[in-house]
Amino acid sequence: MRRYYDLPSLSALAVFEAAARHRNLTRAAGELNVTPGAVSRQIKAVESELGCPLFVRRGNGVALTSAGEELFHVLASGFSKLAETARSIKQGDTSRYVAIASSEFFTSMWLIPRMPDFWRRETDINVDHVIWESKQNFRRSDVELRIRYGLGSWVDEHAELLFGDCIYPVCSPDFARRHQGATAADLVNLPLLNVEWVEPDWLGWEEALLRGGVPAGALRARRFGKFGVALQAAMADQGLVIGWHRLIAPLVEQGELVRFTDLVVPAPGGYYLSHSTTREMSSSAKVLREWLLEQARLENARPLPTDVES
């Protein structure tokens, strides 16, 4: 007997959605608490019923075929709407909820200090701050708003520019005193702290120096997985880190970090507020979005360092 909606097994579709979201069968298996073999069998069952391949193997992961991309986008949108409906039913009409994803350091250094203003205005909205360090968190079904750095072009997302930024070297006050008189050309011979960032548009030392007109060659920089950890290392007198002005200005103002040399480079991207084009924003998300755009206008009223190149 055929199913009423003539669809493959819903459990198999859920397995496919997890594999497509992770682009990796092993990680999908971990999320679903099953074996990779079970994931593979479910996907093969869906492919057999639809009569076409949904994945092709590539390196350590998988890539979606055009049919797989089409199916994934529909499922991701549908599951997001189901999650939103289920959440509304659980919470009742008196509770309003919105999830926003942003990086750990952006959340702690820019967003959280401004949130008290939002709480004073919107006492009945619950905000879930999703700290994303991977695309798994970033694509969680309940996330409606995202703040991310880049060029503003992402698949199935509408992005609004919040503000641009500039970068410059920063270090501890003691480090600056020991290397007083150093110029931008001397940076390549000093201990540099690099951040291995999750976004491809995030600048490392090599590109930052290139954009600043400083010949760099092959750099030997100490590597960190998080911006916040690299800044802690800089404050602990371990070297120089690239300072993103919009995020670290309070630390400079407080004297925990100091600018080093007169090098200032315009950031090639900007900080964007984005939301999915495949689902309708909830009323709570719309309220939070308007507040964020207002805060961005206030941020833009504070000029970047005057010696930044145009």
From TrEMBL:
Record-linked PROSITE patterns: HTH_LYSR
Domain (HTH lysR-type): residue spans on this chain: 8-65
Keywords (A to Z) from UniProt: DNA-binding, Transcription, Transcription regulation
Family in the record: Belongs to the LysR transcriptional regulatory family.
Superkingdom of source: Bacteria
CDD domains in UniProt: PBP2_GcdR_TrpI_HvrB_AmpR_like
UniProt KW Transcription keyword: yes
Descriptive protein name: LysR family transcriptional regulator
